[in-house]
Write a structure and sequence with these properties.
With 191 residues, this protein is mainly alpha-helical. Helices cover 58% and strands 8% of the residues. The protein has 8 helices and 4 strands. It has helices at 8-20, 26-31, 33-49, 86-101, 109-121, 134-151, 162-174, 176-190, and strands at 53-56, 65-68, 72-75, 82-85. It has a two-stranded antiparallel ribbon with strand order 1-4. Helix 3 (33-49) crosses helix 6, helix 4 runs antiparallel to helix 5 and helix 6 (134-151) crosses helix 7 (162-174). The two termini are 27 Å apart. The model has no long low-confidence stretch (mean pLDDT 91).
């Protein structure tokens, strides 16, 4: 699922396979198994609570936006288009854009304010949500799950080799408590 909502038995299966295969991410997954269930429930609740579900791009990131001198911004790479919450996608897009504008890690608050003002000036609405960045966290969990599957040989991985997938999964799972807390804090600061 796009929001990283994998069933508990999938995470348990990956954990067992990771320990059996001595994968470097297995200890972090074991430590944070309960947290993953808690975060999954919060992500699912946030998506269900916001009633502005639409069919949308679902991958608006800086490298999928081209700037045409005559037409302005043009979205490319529509292969993941599908149902989503307009509010949660907008929040994630603005957050990631502000991180890119800020040089990588911390989002630029002025960029966030300007983007949200422009969105709302053109009729966009940001619905109330206790976890505006649920989508961003869901994508993070989905990528972790994908990397687990690649490192276990369950997915081909495309251009990502199993060793790199294993390393990234280990790093991202180890940092999950801090990353999720950071996103929850930014959710309160967005609007």
């Amino acid at each position: 699922m796009w929001y990283g909502v994998n069933p508990p038995d999938a995470w348990d299966r990956w954990l067992a396979a990771g320990h059996a295969g001595d994968r470097s991410w297995a200890p972090a997954l074991r430590r944070h198994r309960g947290l993953i269930d808690d975060l999954t429930a919060r992500i699912d609740a946030a998506y269900r609570a916001v009633d502005d579900h639409v069919v949308t791009h679902r991958d608006v990131v800086p490298h999928n936006v081209l700037i045409d001198a005559a037409r302005g911004p043009v979205l490319i790479d529509w292969d993941t288009a599908g149902p989503d919450s307009a509010t949660l996608e907008t929040a994630a897009t603005v957050f990631d854009g502000a991180r890119h504008a800020g040089g990588g890690q911390e989002p630029d608050p002025a960029w966030i304010a300007a983007a949200l003002d422009a969105y709302q000036a053109r009729g966009g609405q940001i619905r109330s949500s206790e976890f505006l960045l649920a989508r961003r966290l869901g994508v993070h969990l989905a990528r972790c799950a994908e990397r687990l599957r690649i490192s276990l040989g369950e997915d081909s991985g495309g251009s990502l080799d199993p060793a790199a997938a294993e390393e990234r999964a280990a790093r991202h799972l180890a940092a999950l408590p801090e990353f999720s807390s950071w996103l929850l804090d930014w959710s309160r600061r967005l609007v």
